[in-house]
Amino acid sequence: MKSLDRFIRALRRLPGVGPRQAERFAAYFLRASQGETEEFIHALAAIKQDVKLCPQCFSYSEDGLCEICRDPDRDRGLICVVEDPQDIESLEKTGAYKGLYHVLHGAISPMDGRGAEQVKVRELLERVQHAQPPVREVIIATDPDSEGETTALYLADLLRGLVGQVTRIGYGVPLGGDIDYMDEMTLGYSLKGRTKI
Amino acid sequence: MKSLDRFIRALRRLPGVGPRQAERFAAYFLRASQGETEEFIHALAAIKQDVKLCPQCFSYSEDGLCEICRDPDRDRGLICVVEDPQDIESLEKTGAYKGLYHVLHGAISPMDGRGAEQVKVRELLERVQHAQPPVREVIIATDPDSEGETTALYLADLLRGLVGQVTRIGYGVPLGGDIDYMDEMTLGYSLKGRTKI
Lengths: 197, 197
Hints:
The structure is a homodimer.
Chain A: H1 2-12, H2 19-31, H3 34-50, E1 52-53, E2 60-61, H4 67-70, E3 75-82, H5 85-94, E4 99-103, H6 121-130, E5 137-140, H7 146-159, E6 165-168, H8 184-192
Parallel strand pairs in A: 3-4, 3-5, 5-6
Antiparallel strand pairs in A: 1-2
Helix pairs in contact in A: 1-2
């Protein structure tokens, strides 16, 4: 069936979607009313039209500066660097951070031929150099994998001297995790990063 | 952000999609080229236009009878009843079945107010009554949950007398399963359904 196969192939391009889930999604749309399907299509077309990147932090924004960059109550002396816009939502949920963000849109990955110029590194350097008030601290919250680590070390080298201090989010055992299932690197970090109770 | 929130709400309606996956899908579309997005939209619009139900078995079909119903090599004396079109693909993968199918498009669920008239039961009865050659066996392959069981018993009552025999797919321990994690109902069935080796 040509049309169905073509749509299932398009669904398979969504991140993490396997053949079963793609079939289930196609079945959902086949059962959906024409109105529901049109609403989906309009909502998709609208984000392509309306959603831009914030000119300061490169998170999503539909109208100039994003909500966080516009918020007068955020601490402008703090910038937390993340790989993707979705990471911001996770960090916001902690309620533990009141500074600004900077979205790289990826991590540096020499293996995949993705260098600093493919992510928003130059924009970060320009931003901290011209920041008023000056930036006291840049917290690097790239993913704790090899690309995120490479990116963190690379950024730390560039940023030292430009900002008060550069920090990296803490490594350790995640809450709810099982000590005996934890890899030795993580456990090693959790020992080094132990705190008094 | 109005547009993004609206699209994420639309994505959340897809089966099994939680807030994180919806955000990841939205990020995929925001990164996708305009051409890729248009291709997705066209593919979606095309299935709504092209994909119909096979007038005999009610599986998906883009042109009259579906491929299986049209296939002269399938055994027309056998009908396997399933809840959803996707179930057919799973059964076809076994390579163990060469008959036809009948898709109910759901199961009977008195708790949810879904009776026999909401699924393709009447169509199944008419089909077996007029089938040439007559139907030797109807295999009921509804899900082994309470709705699927209710539906199987209900159909068996209606079909007895109209067809040679009515059978139900076998219950037992799934391959690769762990005996000590298996529920006692399944284990009970696997004991009753034991075969000589």
